[in-house]
Amino acid sequence: MTVSEVKSFFYDFQLTMDKILDYVVTAFPNNEIVYWPPGGSRVLVTFSQFADRVRRVAAALMDLGLRPGKAWELGSKVAVLEWNTLRYLDLYYAIPSIGAALFTVNAMLAPKEIIYTMGVAKPEVFVVNIDYFEPLLKPILDNVKSIKAVIYMSDRGKQPSQDYGVRMIPYEDLLKHEPLREFPEIDERTPATMLFTSGTTGPPKGGYHTHRGLVLHTLSTALAVKNPPVNASQDDVAIVLVPMYHVHAWGWPWSTMLNGHKKVVYPGRFDWGHILRLIHEEGITFSAGVPTILYNILNHPDSPKYDLSRLKFIVGGAALPEGLLKAAQARGMTVISGYGLTETAPVLTIAYLRPDHKDLSPEKKNEIYLRTGIVIPLVQLRVVDEQDRDVPRDGKTIGEIAVRSPWLFREYIGDPEKTRNAWRNGWFHTGDAAVWFPDNYVKIADRLKDVIKSGGEWIPSLRLEDIISTHPGVNLVAVVGVPHEKWGERPIAIIVPKPSYESRLTEDDIKNYLMQFVEKGEIPKWWIPDKVIFVKELPLTSTGKVDKKILRDQYKEVLSR
Amino acid sequence: MTVSEVKSFFYDFQLTMDKILDYVVTAFPNNEIVYWPPGGSRVLVTFSQFADRVRRVAAALMDLGLRPGKAWELGSKVAVLEWNTLRYLDLYYAIPSIGAALFTVNAMLAPKEIIYTMGVAKPEVFVVNIDYFEPLLKPILDNVKSIKAVIYMSDRGKQPSQDYGVRMIPYEDLLKHEPLREFPEIDERTPATMLFTSGTTGPPKGGYHTHRGLVLHTLSTALAVKNPPVNASQDDVAIVLVPMYHVHAWGWPWSTMLNGHKKVVYPGRFDWGHILRLIHEEGITFSAGVPTILYNILNHPDSPKYDLSRLKFIVGGAALPEGLLKAAQARGMTVISGYGLTETAPVLTIAYLRPDHKDLSPEKKNEIYLRTGIVIPLVQLRVVDEQDRDVPRDGKTIGEIAVRSPWLFREYIGDPEKTRNAWRNGWFHTGDAAVWFPDNYVKIADRLKDVIKSGGEWIPSLRLEDIISTHPGVNLVAVVGVPHEKWGERPIAIIVPKPSYESRLTEDDIKNYLMQFVEKGEIPKWWIPDKVIFVKELPLTSTGKVDKKILRDQYKEVLSR
């Protein structure tokens, strides 16, 4: 039989996101999804009812004339600006399932940046929560001419307050559509989502993730969280606290359903008092988010009222501080780290335990939880030097994390230079500096651009900041590298003192404090900053991080003067 | 950036089996593999040491000049004839990883059939355990001229007893080779294994499974067995009791490692006394196999000496009899069904529980375990009538199971008619008759060719055999359909009575016995066979199943006479 004869009847099963929906509704039809926004009422749908919603929304979107994409080629884009709602969950499944791309608009960006990213993405349809975001609607429509229809959503039956000169469709109309019977056949390399990096070094850069990437990411993360200490199971009740406008909410909207968790909860707009009540009333046992989310759960005034001892939590997006881990453990929680980027869909590593860790002491286990983790299935990871050679797996030598996986950005749209710079020698370079342990776990040391290169060796600014921040007189600290004639670069520390220390904290205080860590063998002596500068405030980026670029520029001559 | 520019540096991650090895050795380097053959000594290697073995074997095989395959195109084939050993495990990873195809020779076939399948497969290298199979070597080499080298294996340091006129390499030499540093890049659609169906209706038919299919099958089965009641975890100790020459030992050699089980045990040649000792001494908690394997574990004379209460067992390959389930449960075991075919790599369904089953009574749970199960991720399954329409999901109407998945035979090599017949309307037809329940679980009723078509309705021979076999006077029974003028076909029962009943069991006894089940509403009255025939023995196929083809032929005129 020739290849063409076989091709005529063989069904070449594509890894498309509708297959995930099809599986979960077949295997777990009676599992539950709860949507309960702050001040609103509780909505419960089964997976089976949910699939019906998705099929209605998908059919209604097809009626709007959206074009499906092809392999490596974006189809129509549907922009969504919304909190963590059941409606957003509908769209997570419905938009990709018809071959269009879900473009998750980052609600935390400044309006100017939202308009910039939408102008680059050129969505044809804009789905927006008008309870919160109606003021953005006019400036967006004025600037983003690709938008042909707006689908508006509200928890309160709100109607648009004016005529925007474009077709306006209430979201509820989508749910009245006849359900789509069969999802169209789509090549698995068709883009399913479009995302922008947060862009601390210039404007946000867009890219896309394919169906294939997301299906495999879903299978792999689902498997990885079944390792201890999380031991995810059907008995778990999950709440999705990673914003759905932020890297697919790390894929939880898909993987929690694949894992058959008996209930998955969506809290609407983030309101920590409300979320604590949900954790209690819905019996939540599993969640994830950036350290700030965990911080809020632990430190909200209502927090002490609630039992958090059943809650397992994966921290990603930034390093898990040891103090936060211990505060969570003091409440009985299980907390571990994970790691990934927008470009990586996002999950690359999770700090799960393995069988030979079973009998470790709690302190030793904490050392593992505080690492960035170990690869999940289908991720290959190296820590490399500037010539792309593996650095020693000694837990000390810093290198850059480079990865291979089916769920990586293939390119930064419209930025060949950035694309080429990331994809070198067949490996995607993350721009994250890390150390590699003999047991294959990694720990992020720094963003690569923030690492200080002194005499050919790397000094991680984060580690120095961690130590300096434990000095009782320090409120905020940034360590950056500045040019040095002999060493190339040397570290300096810029410190905002606590008010009570403002007039008395000295450069020597800080250097002597650091010497104690040198004497304990925790850092080498040559890491001690050449200069300590005291300021009233530190410059911040739009997302609230210290803007080290400005600092490096401002103090670039401080060691040569 | 144009597509060709992007292609030049983007790494298109292929789903190849070396990625599974790479993951398990990175994530679980210190997990253990134990090989302990009957009468031999215990060998323990860590996953890390195992990966080193695989890289040595792979490099040595490459030196033999094996050709890698391409997408949908077999490369060189390496035939293996061996029991469940560590060596076979090496080969499960090493042969596919270099792009060659692992051809698992079925040790249970008659020598003539072994030679037939090897003649079709045309392996270039033959890896054979000469402790057991040396007598086959000469007839195989005389008939299969493609074999250029023989690699011989022995647990006892045995050397070949004669010169076979072909290059003979001891397996140990492979392990002395320098390890392969990097596995070659292979298209994920390259065949990784070559298998033959058991072929109850003609000569065995060959086909292949691709890397892509096996990687996805591994991920999906690994996820599925983490559902209750199996709840597979790192704490489990698995023993591979499915013969490795039989459909990839259902994929356990790969999925048990992916799931990070702290230890995986290989028992060598099947010896039930030895296996029971291994279950005890190695602390086995997880295994799988055909009903006969479970039967042997429970009924071996030594069995009562051992505690089986921690053992979880998945039965596949044939229906799980209720009596066997209850006997295993009486020993404290957890047993559920699974289902698949050689053509499906093999797993399609497993009878795992879902959250809404948690509070079911033990009897209701048993009903689920006795079903053939529910799909695992990335399997789409329908039960269809002869026009490929879904049959009602009523638990009664019989149809044929048709499936879609990434891990199906694309074709039967050299048999376009059989290929076309299986692949109809984009679905692979399994030839298994089943009923479909409202909750999406399926239960096999019969092989489609054994189903009796009476008056346009289907009667499952297996169900009638199940009931008749519970009559105290019945030793063996086969129910087949024979031509009938009015109804098309009607069932007849052919019975081997127990010796004590030989002269007194009558046709009426059987019919009256069946009437009790009609009265209880368990079967319809029109299922009662038109004729009951008593015989001394039943004809068997080479694999020990009742040969219904011969019976249908022998009694084809019994209702028209």
From TrEMBL, chains A, B:
<feature type="domain" description="AMP-dependent synthetase/ligase">
    <location>
        <begin position="25"/>
        <end position="412"/>
    </location>
</feature>
<keyword id="KW-0276">Fatty acid metabolism</keyword>
<feature type="domain" description="AMP-binding enzyme C-terminal">
    <location>
        <begin position="464"/>
        <end position="545"/>
    </location>
</feature>
<protein>
    <submittedName>
        <fullName>AMP-dependent synthetase and ligase</fullName>
    </submittedName>
</protein>
<dbReference type="InterPro" id="IPR020845">
    <property type="entry name" value="AMP-binding_CS"/>
</dbReference>
<keyword id="KW-0436">Ligase</keyword>
<dbReference type="InterPro" id="IPR025110">
    <property type="entry name" value="AMP-bd_C"/>
</dbReference>
<dbReference type="GO" id="GO:0016874">
    <property type="term" value="F:ligase activity"/>
</dbReference>
<keyword id="KW-0443">Lipid metabolism</keyword>
<comment type="similarity">
    <text>Belongs to the ATP-dependent AMP-binding enzyme family.</text>
</comment>
<dbReference type="Pfam" id="PF00501">
    <property type="entry name" value="AMP-binding"/>
</dbReference>
<dbReference type="InterPro" id="IPR042099">
    <property type="entry name" value="ANL_N_sf"/>
</dbReference>
<dbReference type="Pfam" id="PF13193">
    <property type="entry name" value="AMP-binding_C"/>
</dbReference>
<dbReference type="InterPro" id="IPR000873">
    <property type="entry name" value="AMP-dep_synth/lig_dom"/>
</dbReference>
<dbReference type="GO" id="GO:0006631">
    <property type="term" value="P:fatty acid metabolic process"/>
</dbReference>
<dbReference type="InterPro" id="IPR045851">
    <property type="entry name" value="AMP-bd_C_sf"/>
</dbReference>
